[in-house]
Design a protein that fits this description.
mainly alpha, elongated, 65% helix
Length: 74
C-alpha cells in the first residue's frame, strides 16, 4: 500500500497513516458501499472518457483474438 501511495512511509513504526490519496480512495469505497449507483456512475463516466481506446481494443481482439497472432499460430 505504501508503493501505491495509500500509506505514508514516514509514519513511525507500528503506526499506519493514510496519505491524501488513501483517504480519497477510502472515502470513495465507503460512499460506494452506501450507494452502489455511485460506483455505476463512476464506471459509466470512465467508459465514456475512454470510449475510443475501448473501441480500438475491441477491434484488435476481433482481428487478432484475445492473445494475438503469435499464440494463435502456436
Amino acid at each position: 500500500m505504501v508503493r501505491e501511495g495509500l500509506l505514508d512511509d514516514r509514519a513511525e513504526r507500528g503506526v499506519w497513516r493514510l496519505t491524501e490519496v488513501g483517504r480519497r480512495q477510502l472515502f470513495d469505497y465507503e460512499r460506494d458501499q452506501r450507494d452502489p449507483r455511485e460506483s455505476d456512475r463512476r464506471a459509466a463516466a470512465w467508459a465514456a472518457e475512454n470510449a475510443e481506446a475501448i473501441r480500438v481494443h475491441n477491434e484488435r481482439i476481433a482481428e487478432r483474438g484475445i492473445f494475438g497472432e503469435d499464440l494463435r499460430r502456436w
